[in-house]
Batch of 4 targets.
Target 1
Amino acid sequence: MASENIFEINTEDFEKIKNQEGPYILDFYSDECAPCESLAPKYQEMADLFGDKVKFYKIFRQQNRDLAKKMGVSSSPTVVFYNNGKETGSRLIGGIKKKDLLTNISTLLPGDEFKNRISKKKPQVKEADVLILGGGPAGMSAGIYAAQAKLKTIMVDPELTGGQVKTTHLISNYAGTGKAVNGYELMDLMLTQTKEAGAEVIAAVDITELKVSENGGLHTLILDNGDMTIHAKSLIITTGAQPRLTGAPGEKENRGLGISYCATCDGKYYDGKEIIVIGGGNSAVEESLFLTRFATKIHMIQNLETLTANKTAIDHLLKNEKISVSYNTVVKEFTRLEDGRMKLLVSNVKTNEESTLETDGVFVFIGMMPNVEVLPNSLKKDNWGYLVTNDDMETNLPGVYAAGDVRSKKIRQAATAVGDGAIAGILVEKYVEQFDARVKGNH
């Protein structure tokens, strides 16, 4: 339910209110946009907390494209901050954290006013048998099995539940669906099943600290700078993986400003335009084919001599007249031009010959890296940073399991993630029983 402090406006409305006195915030959002859905409850909370002092607006980007283009908004969501009609602070784009919203809002209000509002929030403390960190297919599968075993189960996802699968436009090899299924729909069904099993789901939060016991004690997760603390007897890590960056200069600065990592989220904004796709594996090929729905021309940049996707996908791609491929090529630098287009400095890895390419937008699909930033060094990892487990999904620490793409393994698919989660969700029951018996024996 929308907050009474959030106002939906269009371009005409914005022209009327843009020079108003006092602070206001503008959220450009889109549909079928996982980062937008992740932001929504945080934006709602901010409006409830500060809405009588700061005005909160939302603009549906797809129906107000001219305004978005005029303002240089090329990614959803984009949050812009104003005070007395002038833009202030830094714009927030993509996966927006609550702490970043608070930081910007603090500059719009007098210091005491901001502190007083924050101090009114009462911290929550929760207890759980099983804490699942991550809400993708592995996390939901684990949650279903653990909750059905009558274990007090809490699943926490700092973003929106569904993981990478939620932004996959079609999944054609997930058994039981009967046909190719939209990843968004599949994950929504799985989320409903997880909740109906009895698991509590907490999403769109910032992880402040994770304290993992090394000797079989309670694990502690602190969220949103102490707004919520969860103590759990066991921990199942299903944090998944995230897109790997090229590492070229100009990439980080232009994320969401011409460089994207999600075709489902941003492909629609390149309707009738030319784009570049970096990568040559399954995701790069499949997403390039998807992007042909919008773009008039797609140029792929692959650092190897051949594409490395499955043969069927490659055959489809090479037959598509909209797509061309440069092999043995790497990007050396990204530059955003004054008109909002991107310029790429590229180099041939064999001849070292350099050249420049200009395009309306860039999509990067060069693999993934595990989400392990919040995890302690005491957890054993492989050479690529993935968590090492045995066949029972147990890590080297007692009561700590890992499942899905964050785990060191050969195959990473939605189906294998669900299998991992099922194993962890089933076997954690025995560990919790042993934990309770140990605690009872000590009293």
Target 2
Amino acid sequence: MELGRKFYIRHSILKEEEDITHEFKGHRVLHFEEDGRNGRDANGRKTRQYISKYLCGMLNSGKGGRLYIGVLDNGQIEGVMLTRYQKDHILTSLEDIFERFEPPLHFSLYSVSFVPVLEDNEIEEGIKDGYKYWDENQRGYPHKIRTHSYCWCDLESQAALMSGLINPFYVVEIQLKSITNLKVPYRAEDGAYYIRRNAFNECIDYSELIKELECR
């Protein structure tokens, strides 16, 4: 599946592999305050890592990168079901996260795309507006962020699903621009520093990170 296409096919394999500039996530737990919602096994061990730390690591690598939400670790495309309200929630939450980075990340250094995910039998039909219910007035409702509790948009989506209404699936692509000659490292909203090493993210001490930046 090529970047820049207007849709992905469910269960297909992304051409890219996880490396220093690509990261796959099958969930949409964006920041550490959401981390308590779920994502633990029977022994209490974490099975999900919140996304903001990976974005911070990519920024401190200086190379930028692209993080895919809705893609499994093996590159298999599944997508995440999102209403229009939930898409707004993601944008609002990401804006809040980057504003809490230190230094704050300017909006010109990142972009967010919602790429539709289709089944094989939907290709000929093409991309269409699959939303079953949409009230423009609701879009002004404030979203509940910085918490592991569900937002009203999530509860609305769950209610729709229980009524048999299936909303569209997407791969959410978060693109970070490269930053040449990075001198001041980014600290994530959880208060820690991260750096990207090949396909791994590492929490790093501030002094060690400064040394790495000076050696580039």
Target 3
Amino acid sequence: MYCGTFDRGLWRSKDGGSSWEAIGTLPSFGEVFPANAIHMGAITAVSVSPAKGDDGNGIVYVGTEPSAMFVSKNGGDNFELLTDYRQMPSYSSWFFPQRTYTHHVKHIEIDANNPETIYTTIEVGGLIKSVDGGMTWTEEKEGNYPQDIHVLKSHCNAPNRLYGVLGDSFLKEPGQEYAESNDGGKTWNYICSGLKHHYAYQMAVNPNDPENIIIATSSNPHVAHDYNNGNCESFIYKKEKNGSWAEMNAGLPTPKGTIIPVLKATSDGTFYLFSNKGVYQSVDGGSNWTSLEIPWENRFMEQHPYEMLIIK
């Protein structure tokens, strides 16, 4: 397994997380970057492909700040730069709102039906796509395309369908919190009926049902991410086929005081939610939730979760 950090590079564990080693990280003071390393210390996205590398393990893709994509085909022992995206026509307009002088790869999605197709989202810069395993990249920017895709998903039972949760309502206008594409990212439809909170940050889709979707939202980025003495808030919504979004709260902690959570789904259709208030599970498509009995320290209550790995 792999863990990206914002200022200390990429780490790897070969024993299920009991111990970790730094890989592809920054050189010591006065040294130069080795040619086969990741040339940035800020790791912002990691994805392991089902396609196998030279060692028989999944190919590892790593996104950074400033925006760049690296790949390892030997389990993280060596990396090569695939792209720094500077050839993209809109590159000069990309920015991250909190650090407007830079931007980063926000999410990497390996297509569920073809591992040669890779999607990366740039915060803020839209969707960049490769159909040859990362060798070449193109922008997907037709019509009213989303610019700030926080999480992007594909589905094995819905070829060419993409799902995205967005921050675009704070770049453009309300009503652009969630969007879908049915043509691999060329065109998009905004599907926001029922959403009362306009900042969407996390999402999970049932692997067995491409219409069963849950998302995590908040009123704005500040109350989503900043604990601020318990003044943070987050809300969970569920959507099924041809329906509007409906808020779900049965079994979950109160929205007030809950930092926006991480959402995941496993192959059996179970949803998981990880927030500053614990880990929760839903076995009925996201309608009802139960808290998992995991020891929870008081200091966790003010911390922001960013990722969750479920091992079964």
Target 4
Amino acid sequence: MSPATPAGEPGAPDPGEPHSGGPAPTHVLLVGDSVTDCGRRADPEALGDGYVRLLAEGPLSGCRVTNRGVGGDRAVDLAARWDADVLAERPDVLSVLVGINDTWRRYDRGRATPAEAFETTYRALLGSALAAGVRRLVLVEPFVLPVTAEQERWWDEDLGAKVAAVHRLAAEHGAVLVPAGTHLAALAAAHGARALAADGVHPTAAGHRALADLWWAAAGGSVRRG
């Protein structure tokens, strides 16, 4: 059910192995919420067991890969730790996946984040990253694969405007856009949403594989140039 060549399989482009005495490997840092975190803080390798690990052990195996996802994070939570979690790490390539909690908190805790505020915060994060020397940006669409009647409303009422903001920010900053929502929705239509995200938000193993494949298909060229 993968939308692209599975990460790590023969035929996936190699971003380049580090060589003794040669240039340092490309540093790819991925930041976001629980979809990125995926247990990385309890993992001795700090990669988690989701799409970041699949990338790190597959097509990014020649890179230095850092996972800075934190479960539950919204854009403002990323901002609170941005200097330590991102800028201090000095990545060459920065991948950001955030937004679903900015939507979800509206429904489970009554804490709405207007799309305009989300976009303003996100824009400031990207600007500071570029100013600090990040060479390539990768923005991943936040997504929901509805499995409840309430989640069916999320797109029209909230998430759609935030995804539109991510598209604008990608164009504004020359970033790679990973159309996760679009492609995962197509897979969900074919295989069922629960096969990809049992609760509509957190990917299953198959969902993480699809996300890793999609990320590499969209961003692999940027990593090779990173």
